[in-house]
Amino acid sequence: MKEFRIAELRADEQENNELILEGVPILYDTPTVINAPFGSYKEVIQRGALDDTDLSDVSLYINHDVKRIPLARTPKTMQLRLGSAGLEIRAELPHTEEGRSVHTAVERGDLKGMSFAFTVDDDGSHYDAKTNTRTITKINKVYECSVVSFPAYPQTSVEARSQIEEVWNELNSHERQQTKIKINQLLKKEI
Q: Is the pLDDT of residue 98 over 70?
């Protein structure tokens, strides 16, 4: 399942009147709080998680609305590069009403966040219940990046939640088992 994360973005206007967006939508080794239905947890994308990632055919959208025409697409109007901080993006927006509006909103600071959709295999991440942290070690594919209206609220996919919910359920099961043992011990003392 696809997952979505948030990062920052900036706008530049070039001398030849191009509408350019640049940013780093995926940051390495930077803890992020992810809110899920069962609670929140920390997530870190480990340096090297993008080394063999499929970055072909990535589109740029607004708010993950894939029903709209993309604002840019690799490799012609959007370039992705692995930098020292993470995945760097440079997108040339079209001179359409929507392209100009997005560029202006980013330039003014009205829109300042990015999000991205990606997939991770079961062995591409692990969850540590003690620290309540999910570490992503291998991202398979980045599907799209989006300029988003509400970057403060990251959304995760069912896959991420289900992996962590499994661990939570195991812990809860263990706690239930311990409670049953204590109840049985108390009952034995009364008999």
A: yes
Residue 96 CB contacts under 8 Å (≥ 6 apart), including other chains: none
Task: Please compute the mean of the pLDDT values over residues 45-74 and round it to a whole number.
Answer: 94
- 28, 5 in Cβ contact below 8 A? no
In a 13 Å sphere around the CA of 157, the CA atoms on its Cβ side amount to 13
Q: Which of 124, 161, 160, 145 is nearest to 72 (CA)?
A: 145
Q: Is the pTM of this model over 0.85?
A: no
State the DSSP string of 157-173.
Answer: -HHHHHHHHHHHHHHHH
Q: What is the DSSP letter of 54?
A: B
Of the candidates 84, 90, 88, the one whose C-alpha atom is nearest the C-alpha of residue 72 is 90
CA distance 171 to 191: 31
